[in-house]
Amino acid sequence: MACCDCKVDLIPRTASAVTNLAHLNECCKRSEDVDTSGIQHPHGPFMERAIYLSRVAGLEKRTGGCFGAVVVKNGKIVGEGYNNVISHNDPTWHGEVGAIRDASQRLGTPHLKGCVLYTSSEPCPMCMGACYWARIDKIYYATTAKDVKEHGRFEDEDFYEEFAKPPADRNIPALEFMREEAVKVWEEFGQLPDRCHY
Amino acid sequence: MACCDCKVDLIPRTASAVTNLAHLNECCKRSEDVDTSGIQHPHGPFMERAIYLSRVAGLEKRTGGCFGAVVVKNGKIVGEGYNNVISHNDPTWHGEVGAIRDASQRLGTPHLKGCVLYTSSEPCPMCMGACYWARIDKIYYATTAKDVKEHGRFEDEDFYEEFAKPPADRNIPALEFMREEAVKVWEEFGQLPDRCHY
């Protein structure tokens, strides 16, 4: 990766990119970009990094589609990920899920408040859900769901349409079964004085 | 866990439950249940197993909320998971994501066609998205999104409402940035004769 103007080479490693970050974090502080809506982005290199990771996944290592993402906190990358669906036989290993898991491990918390996600593509519902559970502050994405359908036949857009239907009417029908038994567990949970919440 | 009538004890282990399955799979073939809509379920013990795993997560091991799930193929459990968000500082480790990842590893494919997911609660958007990417055939859930909001203050239902809004108007705003740069990667991807797809 050429890190903005300085062209320093950065080696991406999904779960252990710490060695690259000292340089990248310093370098990013010098950069400013303005997006199409006129918003000031002092962190253009973060999106460059996400797009670079999308290249690694789809073109270089061929681990999955062209999807990459980074999680940024206080101007520093704290997590990185790229699509590993094919390489790891894991349908959940999207770029954003990888970056969120990486950041959570590094920061030692499942909550990423104060963090911004930069992702090479508009998050699919799974990854958007991950952002909500992780309490991410804000998301910047590059390609749209329409773009990845056009160029890669990925169905992110279709899935969003599916989710607007009642569960039983979707292409994957979801049906209620044995509700009472499961509610009993929650009733016990509700009585725990020190029950977990997140 | 008491496996339906026979009461054989089964020890749940999220990523390595193989040793339990020989018994459970044989036993399940003998069981029949009918759900509230009158649908025949020859696999009631699969949902019992998912509910048992929800108990492990929320009440016994306290690894997270009361959420458990199993993936079933041809009448056999091929993946199990329960909520590990708190224990592993991983906001993506829901019961369903865990079960899908487990099944994918065991079957050696990111595609779970022919599989049914039994989950103790209606999947959140993240887990529903995981089901779509994994190409799950059908989902049975026990508690509803309303139930887990009432009993555990989990916001699955709110997240579904959020997803119906335009990306920039959500509680986590998602904004487009540097689209052209990312599209270039997809254009290169489109020219690969052996590009991956899933």
From TrEMBL, chains A, B:
CDD domains: nucleoside_deaminase (cd01285). Residues 46-142 form the CMP/dCMP-type deaminase domain. InterPro entries: CMP_dCMP_dom, Cytidine_deaminase-like. It holds the Pfam family dCMP_cyt_deam_1. It comes from the Eukaryota. This is CMP/dCMP-type deaminase domain-containing protein. It comes from Tetradesmus obliquus (Green alga).
